[in-house]
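Sanity check. The docking grid for LTDHYY67 depends on where the pocket ends up, so I'm generating a full predicted complex first rather than guessing from homology. Inputs follow.
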Amino acid sequence: MSASAYNFETVKVSFPAEFVAHVELNRPKKLNAINDTMWTDIGAVFNQLRDDENVRAIVLSGSGRCFTSGLDLFSLNLPVVPDDPSRTAFKFRPYIKKLQDCLTAIEICDKAVVAAIHGPCIGGGIDITTACDIRYASKDAYFSVKEVDIGLAADVGTLQRLPKVVGNIGWVRELCLTGRNFDSKEALEQGFVSKVVDDYKAVVAAALATATLIAEKSPVAAIGTKHILNYSRDHTVQEGLDYVATWNQVMLTTPDLPTAAAAQMQKTKAVFAKL
Ligand SMILES: CC/C=C\C=C\CC(=O)SCCNC(=O)CCNC(=O)[C@H](O)C(C)(C)COP(=O)(O)OP(=O)(O)OC[C@H]1O[C@@H](n2cnc3c(N)ncnc32)[C@H](O)[C@@H]1OP(=O)(O)O
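Predicted complex below; grid placement will be based on this.
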């Protein structure tokens, strides 16, 4: 598939290197605030990338001066049924589940996703980046689990994923309960991001370099590794070991294994078939 196959109003897709896609949240005039269209576009683009045999790793960033300012506060279309809390509740649940699915599409996308974060990364931005595999930031990046400040408990991933990304649960609870800003230095110290570089250009370059390294691997190995890491995060060590044994009893039969092993020994670059 080529860039022209990716037609979205609020996300831009390019292919800066072989087997690497770059997704940009693209409402720069509104600081990439996430409106209804963007929720849907994020889900759709990651589902499409999952099924694209020409993509093996993905960079995710924001266009303009930030990653995202979070939920679009001016275009909330909440499914309220007047004078009926019960019917409203029945409509709210699928509404929230749909938004969750849009971001879970990043986590279950098969291909590794590297977030390149600059400027504000607020509210929904934390939900998005915790669904990514790797997070890099520029020095000017700052973050806030802002939901508490707009009167809601975060409901599209942060409260579930952030404690699994960062081991320091006291820090996580402080952020989620206060909504205070934290900068890229603090994010690095706490392990929320794994690299901080000078500016937007550098953070996209760093993410692209990592995505390119991943894209050079056997897709069978890279997809399996992401899948097993996600599974193991949510299960006991023994369950994870049993699961990877089952997975690999099939996957180890791939010709990618002898191809990769031979390339290692010959100190050459292996070429792997498309999925
Ligand atoms: C079911 C619920 C699911 C998910 C829930 C997620 C919850 C959240 O995401 S909570 C977080 C919500 N976001 C915020 O509270 C941040 C709001 N924005 C700001 O505080 C500021 O914009 C800023 C990020 C601090 C940046 O300030 P500044 O540099 O002064 O720029 P502005 O002039 O404020 O913004 C430029 C332009 O963008 C528009 N905009 C910015 N953020 C949003 C937003 N979140 N929603 C809608 N629009 C936004 C702003 O209005 C400006 O537009 P103009 O047309 O130029 O006026």
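Relevant for the grid: The CA atoms of residues 36 and 77 lie 8 Å apart.
Also worth noting: The radius of gyration is 19 Å.
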